[in-house]
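Dear Dr. H.,

I hope your travels went smoothly. While you were away I took the liberty of generating a structure for the chain from your last submission, since the lab meeting agenda had it listed for discussion. I wanted you to have the full record in hand beforehand rather than looking at slides cold. The sequence, exactly as received, is reproduced here:
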Amino acid sequence: MRSDIIKRLIEAHSEGDNRAFRKAALQLAAAESSAGHSRIADDIRRQIAALPLRHGPDSVVDIARPRGELAEILEGGHRRERLGDLILSPEKCEELEKVLHENRSRAALERHGLSPRRRLLFHGPPGCGKTLAATVIAGEMGLPLLTLRLASLFSRFLGATANHLCSVFDEMPRRPGVYLFDEFDAIAQARGESQDVGEMRRVVTAFLQFMDADQSPSLLIAATNHPELLDRAVFRRFDVVLAFSMPDEQQLRALIRLRLRSYTIAEKVVDRVAPLGAGLSFADLGRACDDALRTMVLDGREEPTLEDLEGAFTKAQQRAHDQQRARGR
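The corresponding predicted structure, in token form, is as follows:
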């Protein structure tokens, strides 16, 4: 059986079929695991995870699509975002670049008894780049982004939530990827608000145990808007903790230029529009730029005008104000 898999590996390599090559390599890892060669199987999976992904119609591999019960808990796919799509402070960009470099150099680190940092906690206000940063890491690593569906994770049945978590962690060595636990505070928040406090404590305990036992090549990223709700024990499990914040004036201008880079935007236009974006999140600013471009397209023009941008940013401020009022702030 393994000889057939090796033959398919050679054929896929000679034909430049990245998808078939990865699929055959994963089959080889499964065959080695079935034969009791777990260390060899893990080595193969780690090497597959470190391979760069060539994007294109044939590059989306099966590991990006959870199957069976996991399809109800995880949603996944390959992403094309890169570091250039992310606007952060130089210090945070440098930290993410180090994490990427470490994970690409896993084999070299392991030869010295070291391991890459792969457990990251992102916290900060909504719309400030936490999810995008996870997406960028997946894109840079050529790995699928697998996002946990919290609504499906939590169950009314005793013990089922911990079992769902176990299924996710069991999948990490088999399906290398970037696993995103978005709205991570839901665990701590639910524990405080739930009538079954004991059950939620068991969930948190189970999560900590799964994190401690995980030796997979996958990256685990948790994102939360409310870090104050997390247990200290949870904080200590992460290798990297990054605080995301609202954009400053320089980042605001950079985002406008980035989102409108395909168009001719004079610097004086950026100067006029930037003050209108003060206090908006990165997500709000991105939506405002898109709204301006929609107006441009619907009016049959090829370039956005100052009026398009001013109108879109003014409406974005009104939406943000309405949302704050709805939240009772």
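Two observations you may find useful: The radius of gyration is 22 Å. Residues 306-326 form the longest helix (21 residues).

With kind regards,
E. W.
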